[in-house]
Amino acid sequence: MPVLLVVVDGLSDRPVDGKTPLSVANKPNFDRLAEMGINGIMDTIAPGIRPGSDTSHLALLGYDPYRYYSGRGPIEAAGVGIEVKPGDIAFRINFATVEGEGKIFDKVVVDRRAGRIENTEELIEAIRNKVRLPVEFLIEKGTGHRAAIVFRGENLSEKVSDTDPKAVGKKVKKCTALSEEEGAKRLAEIVNEFMQKAHEVLDEHPLNKERADKGLPKANALLLRGAGKMPHVPSFEERFGLKLCVITATALIKGVGKIVGADVVTPEGATGNKNTDLEAKFRAAKNALKSHDVILLHIKATDELGHDGDFDGKRKFIEKLDERISTLFDLNFSETCLIVTADHSTPVKVKDHTADPVPVIIVHEDVRRDEVESFSEFEAYKGGLCRIRGMDLLNIAFDLLNIAKKFGA
Amino acid sequence: MPVLLVVVDGLSDRPVDGKTPLSVANKPNFDRLAEMGINGIMDTIAPGIRPGSDTSHLALLGYDPYRYYSGRGPIEAAGVGIEVKPGDIAFRINFATVEGEGKIFDKVVVDRRAGRIENTEELIEAIRNKVRLPVEFLIEKGTGHRAAIVFRGENLSEKVSDTDPKAVGKKVKKCTALSEEEGAKRLAEIVNEFMQKAHEVLDEHPLNKERADKGLPKANALLLRGAGKMPHVPSFEERFGLKLCVITATALIKGVGKIVGADVVTPEGATGNKNTDLEAKFRAAKNALKSHDVILLHIKATDELGHDGDFDGKRKFIEKLDERISTLFDLNFSETCLIVTADHSTPVKVKDHTADPVPVIIVHEDVRRDEVESFSEFEAYKGGLCRIRGMDLLNIAFDLLNIAKKFGA
Predict the structure, then answer these.
(1) Taking CB atoms and an 8 Å cutoff, what residues of chain B touch A366?
(2) So what's the pLDDT on residue A136?
(3) Distance from C-alpha of B41 to C-alpha of A353, rounded to nearest angstrom
């Protein structure tokens, strides 16, 4: 039964002199999959809509992002391990360095990442223990100087502004209500109270005294941004009666997985960059095939290399991935449905996500094989799938596996 | 002006050793139509969504099944000739044999089809004449042991359970409300009253005494299932200003036709199986071209042969149909738009409907002809239509015929 969905982040491209990293890569195994399967192109959200990795992954898992996406806050918060509940308001956090006299909002940001501090565990623990607010809050460390926070209370509204001024040399911003809702005004007051109290706890913390003594910037303020309200999201198992496993090293994709109730796995050695242990990730995916019904294997580095504008690096990583993908040829395709695709294009020329459709291969014994023999942006559209959307993808797999329900008689 | 829409039920397939009944059939006339027209693949509902024949036919006629489909009850009831009105609650019925003492719900079902009784006319007439309920009801015979009933009253809710235990050796089930709505409790009471009264009428009926004397199972109970509430469905003529004719021998498709206000025609000799008189059906279709604007010609046997898993039978029937389709070559394609397609795939390997897209050909003088020269699952996707949806089909025809209205200025 299982579906193995391999999502190569930002894999596809726009042509540079008529070529893309994927089209010029030496990738015999991807090509063999294209030959074995049915091919097409896919708009993960809709034609011309530039996807984030969060919204596109929601769509690939069958969750309409226009209904279930609520901003990056709740997904990041879920990604760092906070159990976000419907109605919670979540923000992304940077540890930062502020200087000046008076209250937090009189002070100026001198480093938005507090010298890229890593060891924020004690600081976060101190905030948990010493800050008291009119509502409950949950705060967790992210990677490096990052963290996330959730405010939990009745009828709070996410329509409030950031406290991150997004530039050094500027004062910390007051959180203000962006709507007339009572819950927005109330949350803004709570956030501002939190900003001041957290600053007091941090500024006096022994770790920051130590840092100051060593000439390191104090991690003495938290900058909040990207407020989002967690909607009610039915779990994947509730919706489809199937067990989902998400294999990723990327916080944002972990968050998407958590939000839809997946088991999220990060194998040792998986880093989310080009030095990741691909072998460990593919091994984890093959293991998950024994315990789960749908496995999303997320590979991140292609996106990073696209953001870096590194044509050759992207090509090389695709070639490295191609070697690894050969380990999937021993799957039993009368039982397993293998899908290889991307969540969006990240063209090296644009250095950001674009809406150029992604190539998709579906391999299963029962597909109507087409004449495509190569995996690339220039061949995929000739395949038997023509052009589909991200939200259709798992439905197509479930139909192939004969677990789809009939609508009507 | 007219559109002739030939729907070959369950025509398309999944490959068996790379072949399908359609791809291997000798079908020069279908191929010639493919060559003359524009080709594509079509999701009658949406990619990966397995259609029923009812929901897909609604979509093919431009009626969104998510809006207008209300379960099988109302469509079956319309199919057997009941004029179902918005708000009516319809059930499918089996004549059955029950045994035991006491009231209907104390008795056990010993034959769910009452020995496959055919001549239920008198029994139904007796029920009509002798059963009195707090609301109006309409009951009509279907094929064999089947019938349908409609309860008509203010604010009844369809959220009630079946009385059919769906197995022999079990007691007849009481109808119970499946929601808190007052109308569900009320309908359940009415259904239970009907069950008892119908049983009394049937058990004492002379025809059943005769059957008992001959050693045949008495048709002494009615088992109800598949409650659905008829929604408001604007007629085809109201919506499009066009007269629709549906030619079919299949009760479910008759029902779809009735529900959208079509003239439903079943030519003599049309049976809905592989021995149907195809000549009579095509003759009826060509006649209807003179009196109607849109003609849906439904051919059923391919679906049955798919459900039977009969690859060769399906191929042979396609070849028989191919001979008949040659009679359409004398249509004037500067006036008439001919569409040949299916309502869903019924792969012989699956023996049920699947969501694999169906091939579609549109023939008209003004289409942009493509390079497809053969009608099959492996060629259609290369055509100029790419991949469309069932709801789009008539709109495309109306546009070709220049009767589409402009949206905007």
Answers:
(1) 14-15, 347, 349
(2) 98
(3) 30
How far is A322 from chain B, CA to nearest CA, in Å? 27
Domain count, chain B: 2
pLDDT band at B370 (very low <50, low <70, confident <90, very high): very high
DSSP code for B19: B
Tell the residue number behind the tokens 């004969």, with chain if given.
A402
Identify whether residues A239 and A205 lie together within a single domain: no
Cβ of B377 and A396 within 8 Å? no
pLDDT digit string, tens, across residues B207-220: 999 999 999 999 99
Closest CA to B376 of B400, B348, B340, B349: B340
Closest-approach residue (CA) in chain A for B344: A406
* Mean pLDDT of the region B97-107: 97
Whether pTM > 0.95 for this model: the answer is: no
What is the model's pLDDT at position B1?
85
Query: What do you get for the CA distance between the two ends of chain B, in Å?
Result: 24
Q: Measured between CA atoms, how close is B65 to chain A, in angstroms?
A: 9
Q: Is the pLDDT of residue A71 over 90?
A: no
Q: Span A123-139, mean pLDDT? A: 98
Is there a single domain that holds both residue B215 and residue B256?
A: no
Average pLDDT of chain B is: 97
Residue A272 confidence class, pLDDT cut points 50, 70, 90: confident
Does A408 contact B51 at a Cβ distance shorter than 8 Å? yes
pLDDT band, very low/low/confident/very high, at B107 (cuts 50, 70, 90): very high
Choose the final residue of a domain: B178, B196, B229: B229
pLDDT at res. B70: 85
Same-domain status, B104 and B185: yes
Strands of B248-328, DSSP E: 263-265, 294-299
Which of B201, B229, B257 is the C-terminal boundary of a domain?
B229
Instruction: Please give the average per-residue pLDDT across A257-278, as a whole number.
Output: 94
- List Cβ neighbours of A290 (8 Å cut-off, separation of 6 or more): none
Question: Is there a single domain that holds both residue A300 and residue A270?
Answer: yes
- Across the interface, which of B48, B69, B381 has its CB nearest the CB of A399? B48
Residue-level pLDDT at B119: 94
Q: Are A386 and B41 an interchain contact pair (Cβ–Cβ within 8 Å)?
A: yes
Q: Which of B12, B13, B14, B392 is the best residue to mutate to test the A interface, defined by the most A CB atoms within 10 Å of its own CB?
A: B14
Q: How many CB pairs under 8 A join A and B?
A: 88
Closest to B9 measured CA to CA, from B51, B72, B68: B51
DSSP state of B236: H
Query: What ipTM was assigned to the predicted interfaces of this complex?
Result: 0.91
Chain B residues within 8 A of A404 when measuring between CB atoms: 48-50, 354-355
CA separation, residue B280 to residues A317, A388, B265 (Å): 64, 40, 11
Regarding whether A138 and A102 lie in a shared domain, the answer is yes
Structural domain contains residue A409: no
Structural domain harbouring B320: 3-69+234-400
Under an 8 A CB cutoff, do A368 and B353 touch?
no
Q: Do A388 and B387 touch (CB under 8 A)?
A: yes
CATH of the domain at A354: 3.40.720.10
Same structural domain for residues B136 and B156?
yes
Q: Name the strand (E) or helix (H) holding B284.
A: helix B278-291
Tokens (6 digits) for B197: 């009264």
Largest CA distance in chain A: 76
B224 and B89, same structural domain? Answer: yes
